[in-house]
Amino acid sequence: MTVSQNEFSLIERFFFNTGKSPFPVVLSQGDDAAVVDVPVGKQLVMSVDTLISGVHFPELTSASDIAHKSLAVNLSDLAAMGATPAWFLLSITLPKFDEVWLSEFSASLKKTSNQYQIELIGGDTCRGPLSISIQVSGLVDQNNYVNRKGAQLGDLILVTGELGNAALGLAYLQQRVILPATLIEPCLEALNRPSPRLELTGFLGSYASAAIDLSDGLVGDLRHILDQSQKGATIRLDSLPVNDFIRSQQEYNYALTGGDDFELCFTIPTQHKDVIDEWNDKNPQCKLTHIGEITDRNYELVGNHKTENLNNWQGYQHFE
Q1: Which domain holds residue 173?
Q2: Which CATH number do you get for residue 58?
């Protein structure tokens, strides 16, 4: 690495002792690779995401927000699988050595990793355009993971939180929309500091038939469940959990195709309907909303006195 500081001293200075996992590590940072034991009766769940400056976050995003989001979006994948976080690897590409930026980034990364009890056990640094890749590992009880292919006819479709706020935040930064003053901060917070819904890990493992995290928009991401499960779906427009601006302006595209929500979308059999109200009573910070049902074939949006075919709608496309 040639960013005005030795790679190993940079890693030791900014990234040692980041997070603490409830699961012991055999060999952590400082060697060629990390070594972990997978507890008996558990399976390892792994995911990786890369965030690139100007693509996945605006170039003026703070180092603190970048660190939080880089880890949170990966933790959201573990949440969708019903997995408990354990360890992560970090690969960071930097245009130059910037002590202030690295201090802010590492402080935020440590705060987020401690919050979600996940430990940094290795990684890499190099020079180039700013990008952050994080690979997370989590644990589930043997064969108790949640995937995308279990949705059944009649299952209820649920989502967490509010949809569309992150896309609105980005549109605001890009001066494509004027927001009410009261919405600016929560929309920017949704964009820059998503909350992985790890509190749902046990709930999903007990009740969900299929699940996915919403990174590229509800319509496109739910389609992955439908394709894997070979089913259709009906979504009700007036059931979508959106803010008053989206509803009053009829700007539902932010919620349907906007992306970057990092909420969860999942299905549960109808016999478990009562647990939705029980969950919402006990967990108001992570409200579940019933937005539709799994059907045998068609993929439709019902609302505004019409029915729209969603099969040709697109979510966020990385290569377009």
Answers
A1: 156-309
A2: 3.30.1330.10
